[in-house]
Hints:
The complex is a heterodimer of chains A (about 475) and B (about 300).
Chain A: H1 3-29, E1 39-45, E2 49-51, E3 54-56, E4 60-67, H2 71-101, H3 103-106, H4 108-124, H5 129-187, H6 193-212, E5 215-219, E6 225-229, E7 234-237, E8 240-241, E9 244-248, E10 255-260, E11 266-268, H7 277-311, E12 315-316, H8 339-342, H9 347-351, E13 357-359, E14 361-362, E15 368-369, H10 372-379, H11 393-433, H12 437-471
Antiparallel strand pairs in A: 1-4, 2-3, 5-6, 6-7, 7-8, 9-10, 10-11, 12-13, 14-15
Helix pairs in contact in A: 1-12, 2-5, 2-6, 2-7, 2-11, 4-5, 4-10, 4-11, 5-6, 5-7, 7-10
Chain B: H1 5-32, H2 43-97, H3 104-125, E1 128-129, E2 132-133, E3 145-147, E4 153-155, E5 163-167, E6 170-173, H4 178-183, H5 188-200, H6 204-257, H7 261-287
Helix pairs in contact in B: 1-7, 2-3, 2-6, 3-5, 5-6
Amino acid sequence: MSIASILNIAKNAVSLNQTSIQVTSHNISNVNTKGYSRQEVVITEETPMLIGNVLIGNGAKVSGIIRYHDKYLDQQIAKKSTEFGEHQIYKRYFERVESVLNEDSTKLTENITAFFNAWQELSTDPQNVAMRGGLKSSAQQMTRSINNIYNELKGLQIELNNNVKMEVADINRITASIADLNNKVFQGSSSSSEANDYLDRRTQYVKELSSKIGIISFEDEYGRMTIMTSKGKSLVDGGQSWELGVKTNQDTGFYRVGWEDFSGNFIDITDDINSGGVYGLLEMRDNQINDFIADTDKLAEVIISEVNSLHKNGYTQNHNVLDPNPDGIPFFRELTGLYAKDIDISDKIKLDLKNIASSSEVDITGKPIGNGIAIDIAALMEKGLFDGNTSTFVDYTSTLTNKIGQLTKGAKDFAQYSEDTMNLMEKQREGVSGVSLDEEMADLIKYQYAFQAASRLFTVADELFQTLLGAFK
Amino acid sequence: MRVTDRIKFDAFKNNLALIKSNLDKTQNKIASGKKILVPSDDPVSSSVAVGFNAEKGLNAQYGRNIERLKTTGVFYETSINSVNNMLTRAKEIAIVQASDTVNAETRKSAGEEVKGIIERLVAIGNTKVGNHYIFGGKKSNNTPFSIDSDYNVTFNGSNEVSSIFVDKGTKEDAGISGDKVFISDTNIFNVLKNFKDALETNNKTGIRNALDGLDKSLEKTQTNLVHVGTYTARIENFIEYNESKNNNIIETLSQIMDVDVAQAVIDFNSLSNAYEAMIYTMTKIQSLSVLNYLR
Lengths: 473, 295
């Protein structure tokens, strides 16, 4: 036991408290850092010295820096964020579809009603030119509102498609970062403050990745994170990451997602993706929006076919009096597909209002008389033409409103639910890992006093030396 | 539980966002006067509203159709009344001219008056409302009656009349055919033409026969007047029904879609209070810190 060892203890104590203050300031400065886990210096007793047959304490040392975190909770959060990411996509895009289909903006039902009303108007004065003009413009207004719905839905689909590509690029960025962090964790000493920060960042990346695509993740024996898709394709293994890619499907014009092996072979995994934001994008793009496009197509198809089949049986103002047969002029362009995209009045009607047929019969001179066709077409409004001839146009469009309303409401509710759950879990995580300034202040004071006391030890040791040296003068 | 600074701030932030979004929603409701802004607010009600709005548009069209029938209905009524008056005058002439005391000269001049009556009736038969001959039946664009120099009148219109919708699945005749008023059963023009010929040829038997025909014509016209009376009464009924239906639709739509403004304002106020309280609490919470007690 020597005075020198007191100095040594003092030196260790000062540096130890300094380290503690440094970690505390690190905590304070990261009070608002997302995903940060508070750290603490682990102080243990120094190995005691054996003097004679007595063990004497030999001060304290820093044995490591720990981070407060709950691994289980972090995993739960990552898992939950897969659901969260998917439902956020549904919410965002169903709300967009909703605004595309909202009667307040599309006026679809209103325009359909106005179209058939125009036929009624014509039925009251079948040869009236002004009323024919009115019918033409209301028909165009209706076809335009259907075209608009189609174009906007298609636009959404294209936007979703581009997002798939961007998300895939994002996934590659994240997996590369995780692989990089794996390397750093592996190389660094496991309990340094630096390593703790790497782990925090990696946890954040895993969470972010999980929100995009459902993954399986676990740590290997060296603390490196191994990540696979839910169907077992490796994304990160040790310091190595695998890239995902996209390829345009020639039939649909949309991207397929693939996994690239080391030789750069593209293996299509689109159908294997079954959760996360990317799945949400694919589901919206390939199923939900197509479904609404099909609904709009059906509507357009029925309008075209029903109106045309009646109209072609009618006599127009351009009817040749010598011809006993109806004029066979279609009111709408006759289409074989893409009804909603291309629905429009026929060229003949565009060219000449007289080509509108309001009469179903001719008199003995061969001139069209009466309002038979106008009244029959007007009557389509009340006819069951959908769902096995049980639903009218209005039934159909109001069902459409109900459908998108229910889907959007469901998506909003679910997104809210998963957001609430996320918030709750984040709060729990924050309770374990978050920085409390009050705590840090208390620690700061604690370490400051300890530092002052340790410094005092130097003075004491110094005085002891002085006394000793003075004795031999 | 350990409460960190972030938990406090996040809770504040989340709650503030929630209140703000609710405030925004309520504000929109008050501004638009509607409680359902997008279908997802209430999918069932909004789809019902789509149906009712269409119903409203359709009903308005039925209303316009009926108004049109009403306008022409008035013309039918006055026209057939005139026919009745003309025939009554013709009958008066016939009664006078059938007597033995009347000479050929007087009868001839009476014949002139009957000519005038025929011309007048043709003019009535060719009544036009807009570009629409009301007695043309389905051939409403052609002059229905034509007269030659011998006062032979031919009907070129259609015996049938078009019908138009006055309500869901209910059609009503758009008028009365000239055939029914002037030609069928008793051809008024033939009766008058024969009467005129008899007067011109001083044919007493012919005049007597014409009197018979005129009686039948008057009888028929009376029937038509009753017919037109019930027709206009029916239209009045349609108008009433159409209006009450429209009111019901508006009422229902309002119940489904319109916001209870008083309630919305109360909601808005309580949300504003919550908002202010929230901010106040935050300033208080912020001051709860060890930092305040450190020099």
